[in-house]
Amino acid sequence: MTPLGKMSSVWLTSVSVFLLLLLQQPPVDGELFTALADMEELLETEAVLITNLDNYVQAQEEKLMQLRQKMHEYRREHAEAARDVSAYLSNPVNAFLLTKRLTTDWRYVENLMTYEVGKEFLENVTAYRSVLKFPSDEDLNGAAVALMRLQDTYNLDTASLARGMLNGVQYSTELSAGDCFELGRQSYLNGDYYHTVLWMREAMDRLTGEVNRTATKEDVLEYLAFSTFKQGNIQTALSMTEELLELVPDHERAVSNKAYYVKELQKEAQQKILRGDDGSEEVPVDTTTKIQKEATPHVYDTNERKLYEQLCRGEQQPPIELRSQLVCRYTTNSSPFLRIGPLKLEEAYLRPYIVIYHDVMSDREIERIKQYARPRFRRATVQNYKTGELEFANYRISKSAWLKDAEDEMIRTISQRVEDMTGLTMETAEELQVVNYGIGGHYEPHFDFARREERNAFKSLGTGNRIATVLFYMSDVTQGGATVFPSLHLALWPRKGTAAFWFNLHASGRGDYATRHAACPVLTGTKWVSNKWIHERGQEFRRPCGLQLDHSAEEF
């Protein structure tokens, strides 16, 4: 047995038992950043790694303690011998002990010195990777992009965010210069030079106050200079590169970049002269001509983007003239069952008619739905508007699961409740979709219904277009996470147990473009929702077709 054999065997036994328990769990997938429900399990992974690291440190300390004891023992005996060498060696016992110390005892010390304490613990980490959730490089990048999204949407100051402050509330510990550098580096890898500059500057500012440096000035300057150049500021990029070369004179990329920047500045100066070479004032470059790219349903203009972000921040709302007409009431929707217990209805908008039902999903139902959904979560997809195929998209960051009515009486009850709420049949409705949003999780402006050009959408279902949407809020959200309708200047804020309902189609069957909506990024907290998409087929007598395009409260 090795010098630390007994001690290590005890730890390894406990680790083996733990691993046997872990191996009973199914393997896991990546893309952890797309759902906070998965991110929670990373804390379990971290707890296991901390325990493993603690055991490793203890083993190292035990090894050093044994070596220190031997060193003190040798030093004591050597000091005694040095006082009178002849007298010490004339004692046959001392002669034997000296010989023993330099043979068997020293071999023990050599074995102890060469013993690799970390081997077993590294093997533990390798074993953990097959049974525990570990984030990937994609998760790291996704988490960084999420922070950038939150920063832009909620106008978060870089320095405040680095201090762990979100909208004036201190939530977490501060970021180090190394953390800020990594955020900048991830932005750089995505070709996002704007955020690269923001976070590299913050890293530089934090470096000056760090005693134990978590990043190097040279690395920060390299990324900062090139990203500044990519933003069009060649002169500043050159100055930063020259500063870098003062620190590292033989930096190959910096030497090459400096020569390139100087050449570009000379070219820029020459072009400036040529634009006004007829003696007139400098002729400005034409910036009015824009090339229109191919339009898609998921590309929105600057005004909509601005409205979307303002709504997410709570800076916009419908005009007072409209809000003054909204009411709250109890409703039965002509349902015999609801005569016993009418629903609480709050009007959110009149044309199109958007309402919020209160207290329509209990805590018990919410927990049961979460329990069913968690093991089935997959990254949420969107339908390609050309092919009809499902695919991942950066404008929708969440994970979803689909639950059938036949799986549980409680799910059937919820479907029946939706039918009572809407007056529409659930026979052709899609399954209950459960969604958990990840870090900065969002869904940018989109339509729930298929436009005329989307001929392949819902073709496989054979149930027509999505006539209406019911959206259940299954959690309160501390900050952010609103459902917003940019063209209506309307924001619906998540409140646990409520449900929003609106028609996606006019009574004529044509899509209502005013229902274009989005899910704002979750700033703090976690957001759980579930929804039922209701289709046209089977609604012929429940919501008859009409010649008028608009639909209003009169239909309820």
From TrEMBL:
Gene3D superfamilies: 6.10.140.1460, q2cbj1_9rhob like domain (2.60.120.620), Tetratricopeptide repeat domain (1.25.40.10)
UniProt cofactor(s): L-ascorbate
Enzyme class label: oxidoreductase
EC number: 1.14.11.2
GO cellular component: endoplasmic reticulum lumen
Domain Fe2OG dioxygenase as annotated: residue spans: 428-536
Any one Gene Ontology molecular-function term assigned to this protein's record: procollagen-proline 4-dioxygenase activity
Pfam families in the cross-refs: 2OG-FeII_Oxy_3, P4Ha_N, TPR_P4H
Subcellular location: Endoplasmic reticulum lumen
PROSITE patterns from the UniProt entry: FE2OG_OXY
Coiled coil: 50-84
Keyword set, alphabetical order: Coiled coil, Dioxygenase, Endoplasmic reticulum, Glycoprotein, Iron, Metal-binding, Oxidoreductase, Signal, Vitamin C
InterPro entries the UniProt entry points to: Oxoglu/Fe-dep_dioxygenase_dom, P4H_N, P4HA-like, Pro_4_hyd_alph, Pro_4_hyd_alph_FE2OG_OXY, TPR-like_helical_dom_sf, TPR_P4H
Keyword Acyltransferase recorded: no
Residues spanning the signal sequence: 1-30
TM annotation in the entry: none
First-listed, main subcellular location of the protein, grouped into a coarse class: endoplasmic reticulum
Protein family: Belongs to the P4HA family.
Function noted in UniProt: Catalyzes the post-translational formation of 4-hydroxyproline in -Xaa-Pro-Gly- sequences in collagens and other proteins.
Name of the protein described by the UniProt record: procollagen-proline 4-dioxygenase
